């Protein structure tokens, strides 16, 4: 009995080995596998080429809009261009995955139907994701901000690098990149929509001739305006803003291009310092005077 079971086992194993060897050594198997791999590689390459061509075409369309007779908002065009590029990438990659699955004889009908059911189930648990996408569309079409704008969202301030379907990327001036889900963007401060105002306060001593100091300031800001590309109109010397304990403060305002007020203020402060030194106008600052007293010893 044991010998018969042993023979049957060996016979079954031998049959399995024979079938396996015949299957592996079948030229049609390797030919079909080779063609499948080639098709998958070609599908992948075609998808990448389509995405690249679409990006190039989109870029040329945006450039044509910018150079055409009808002028469009460059900020808005750049933002919509990035969004359309993202949508094209997602759609092409999805079609590529379906085509690759079809090469493995996967029936796509049940897969798509199952994806619909699963998507419906996931939708109830992914409301935040849907919220991010919807708010992302509202941000773009309401033109709340665009790529290249300087904005502040909550505690984060920086330049908008990308507005995606789900998240917005901000790069701070110190280099950090903040990734903010669109659904969490409740309140936005945009520093790049309107012209900005540079406010420069200059202190002079009480001994200074105010009329002379203001005349020097008016000449200085006029010369500075003629050479500056960041101002939209000539700065205005408002006059005496405040009288402090040790100084008189003169105020200057300058309307600048969006988000350029800090740079203009720095350059104008440096120019005023040089002009004041050249004209003998003192800028008050704390000084320490030390008195040394010597006493003769009493006899």
Automatic annotation (TrEMBL):
<dbReference type="InterPro" id="IPR010920">
    <property type="entry name" value="LSM_dom_sf"/>
</dbReference>
<dbReference type="GO" id="GO:0005886">
    <property type="term" value="C:plasma membrane"/>
</dbReference>
<protein>
    <submittedName>
        <fullName>Small conductance mechanosensitive channel</fullName>
    </submittedName>
</protein>
<dbReference type="InterPro" id="IPR011014">
    <property type="entry name" value="MscS_channel_TM-2"/>
</dbReference>
<feature type="transmembrane region" description="Helical">
    <location>
        <begin position="29"/>
        <end position="51"/>
    </location>
</feature>
<dbReference type="GO" id="GO:0008381">
    <property type="term" value="F:mechanosensitive monoatomic ion channel activity"/>
</dbReference>
<feature type="transmembrane region" description="Helical">
    <location>
        <begin position="83"/>
        <end position="102"/>
    </location>
</feature>
<comment type="function">
    <text>May play a role in resistance to osmotic downshock.</text>
</comment>
<dbReference type="InterPro" id="IPR049278">
    <property type="entry name" value="MS_channel_C"/>
</dbReference>
<feature type="domain" description="Mechanosensitive ion channel MscS C-terminal">
    <location>
        <begin position="199"/>
        <end position="283"/>
    </location>
</feature>
<dbReference type="InterPro" id="IPR011066">
    <property type="entry name" value="MscS_channel_C_sf"/>
</dbReference>
<dbReference type="InterPro" id="IPR049142">
    <property type="entry name" value="MS_channel_1st"/>
</dbReference>
<dbReference type="InterPro" id="IPR023408">
    <property type="entry name" value="MscS_beta-dom_sf"/>
</dbReference>
<feature type="domain" description="Mechanosensitive ion channel transmembrane helices 2/3">
    <location>
        <begin position="86"/>
        <end position="127"/>
    </location>
</feature>
<keyword id="KW-0812">Transmembrane</keyword>
<dbReference type="Pfam" id="PF21088">
    <property type="entry name" value="MS_channel_1st"/>
</dbReference>
<comment type="similarity">
    <text>Belongs to the MscS (TC 1.A.23) family.</text>
</comment>
<keyword id="KW-1133">Transmembrane helix</keyword>
<feature type="transmembrane region" description="Helical">
    <location>
        <begin position="108"/>
        <end position="130"/>
    </location>
</feature>
<keyword id="KW-1003">Cell membrane</keyword>
<dbReference type="Pfam" id="PF21082">
    <property type="entry name" value="MS_channel_3rd"/>
</dbReference>
<dbReference type="Pfam" id="PF00924">
    <property type="entry name" value="MS_channel_2nd"/>
</dbReference>
<keyword id="KW-0472">Membrane</keyword>
<feature type="domain" description="Mechanosensitive ion channel MscS">
    <location>
        <begin position="129"/>
        <end position="192"/>
    </location>
</feature>
<dbReference type="InterPro" id="IPR006685">
    <property type="entry name" value="MscS_channel_2nd"/>
</dbReference>
<dbReference type="InterPro" id="IPR045276">
    <property type="entry name" value="YbiO_bact"/>
</dbReference>
């Amino acid at each position: 009995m044991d010998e018969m079971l042993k023979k049957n086992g060996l016979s079954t194993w031998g049959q399995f080995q024979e079938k396996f060897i015949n299957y592996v050594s079948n030229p049609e198997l390797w030919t079909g596998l080779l063609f499948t791999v080639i098709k998958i590689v070609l599908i992948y390459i075609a998808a990448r080429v389509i995405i690249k061509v679409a990006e190039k075409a989109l870029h040329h369309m945006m450039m044509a809009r910018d150079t055409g007779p009808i002028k469009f908002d460059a900020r808005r065009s750049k933002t919509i261009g990035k969004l359309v590029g993202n949508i094209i990438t997602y759609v092409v990659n999805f079609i590529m995955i379906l085509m690759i699955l079809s090469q493995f004889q996967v029936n796509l009908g049940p897969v798509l139907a199952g994806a619909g059911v699963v998507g419906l189930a996931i939708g109830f648990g992914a409301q935040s994701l849907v919220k991010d996408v919807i708010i992302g569309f509202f941000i773009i079409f309401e033109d709340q901000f665009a790529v290249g704008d300087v904005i502040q969202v909550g505690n984060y301030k920086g330049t908008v690098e990308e507005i995606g379907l789900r998240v917005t990327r901000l790069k701070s001036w110190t280099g950090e990149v903040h990734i903010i889900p669109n659904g969490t963007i409740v309140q936005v401060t945009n520093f790049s929509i309107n012209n900005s105002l540079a406010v420069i306060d200059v202190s002079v001593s009480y001994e200074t001739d105010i009329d002379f100091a203001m005349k020097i300031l008016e000449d200085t800001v006029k010369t500075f305006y003629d050479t500056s590309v960041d101002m939209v109109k000539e700065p205005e010397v408002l006059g005496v803003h405040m009288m402090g304990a040790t100084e008189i403060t003169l105020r200057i305002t300058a309307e600048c291009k969006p988000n350029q007020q800090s740079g203009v203020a720095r350059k104008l402060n440096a120019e005023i310092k040089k002009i004041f030194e050249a004209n003998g106008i003192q800028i008050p600052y704390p000084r320490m005077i030390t008195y040394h007293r010597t006493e003769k010893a009493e006899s």
